[in-house]
Amino acid sequence: MTGLPAVEAKNVTKTFGAGPDAVVALDNVSVTIQQNEFFTLLGPSGCGKTTLLRLIAGFELPTAGSILLEGQEVAHLPPFKRMVNTVFQSYALFPHLTVAENIGFGLKMLGRRRADRDAQIEKMLKLVKMEPMRNRKVHQLSGGQQQRVALARALAPHPKVLLLDEPLSALDLKLRKEMQIELKRLQHETGITFIFVTHDQEEALTMSDRIAVMSHGKILQIGTANEIYEHPVDRFVADFIGETNFIEAEVMQRIGNRGQIRLPSGIALARELDPIAPVGGKVTLAIRPERIDLVKPGADCQLAGKVENIVYFGTDTHFHIDLDTGGDVTVRVQNRRGFQEVLKQGDAVGLRIAPEAMQVLKD
Ligand code: ATP
Questions:
Q1: Rounded-to-integer distance, Cα 233 and Cα 359, Å
Q2: Cα 46 to middle of ligand 1, angstroms
Q3: Average predicted confidence (pLDDT) for the chain
Q4: What is the ipTM, given to two decimal places?
Q5: Which of 64, 70, 347, 361 reaches 20 to 30 Å from 81, CA-CA?
Q6: HSE of 266 in the Cβ direction (CA atoms, 13 Å)?
Q7: Least confident among 169-173, 246-250, 284-288, 313-317
Q8: What is the whole-number distance in angstroms between the Cα of residue 361 and the centre of ligand 1?
Q9: Domains contained in the chain, CATH given
Q10: Single pTM value for the model
Q11: C-beta 16 within 6 A of ligand 1
């Protein structure tokens, strides 16, 4: 290990086509991915995740900006010279080859000697727990087993970086959960940097060391799952990652980067504020549904409303509350005995929200 970042994208722009039909797939994207990280690119369809992956792999070249692998600019390097491997959603296994032959394919292309290849194939079969199936053909394997072979084949040459483009999306939910744990284990055991692409926020939150949230060719936020969930930078991130309630508040006064804001209920709070939020202007607060407590009306609370709808989910219950001041919020309460157990549709309730659970968003 060199101690240098595994991958850096510096001011990368990628445009497809020209003239009025041009598509800007990546718009001045910069990101640094450290060695041994499980790093996820997360965003809705079309936001540019795959394009960034393809630029790192070398299947495409940037229109502007540069890609560095371990500190070296790689524009001149074709994919096979980059020490980067890719696992595709479709697995792209060779149907006429056995499991072992598939795993050894890349090693053969690299000109490794037979004894080396065989030893590495054995190691990989063990790593992905497929030793008993080494002689099966691809069509004799389940989807999950094919996925393991695709992973073993990509890991066999021990690349510095493994790129994974929605590799679990073809699996059913149960298998998908199993493979999430399996992928984490493989990353940990091999020490290879994983760059994982998904549009599934839950998958990103549970698997990643860090996540880059993307939208329309830009990276909006980079951080750990906790940072992104607890402190989303803007409305898009707050909305895309988990469920969020948005409430407008008015800036009453400010001193430096702190100020007083007023909730629609008239209650004032001291908050850190964006330097651009003027006195008299509006700010949006993001509040997670599980950070709101339902209390008796009139009790010490920040907002008040009426229960509009109750949905039971086994471990928790979702209450949809119409606020007295207009708008509505969702409150998620764990199913323990308490005040919420006696609530029914139409009941008046108070909403208690800790000040730190109200995140002021950039607009
Ligand atoms: P998905 O989750 O659907 O795969 P994505 O986030 O990976 O989406 P990209 O595949 O990177 O998104 O695409 C980003 C944008 O660039 C899209 O608008 C897409 O239509 C466009 N695009 C991607 N590849 C090409 C291409 N070869 N030619 C023209 N446009 C392209």
A1: 9
A2: 5
A3: 91
A4: 0.95
A5: 64
A6: 2
A7: 169-173
A8: 29
A9: 7-239 (3.40.50.300), 243-361 (2.40.50.140)
A10: 0.87
A11: yes
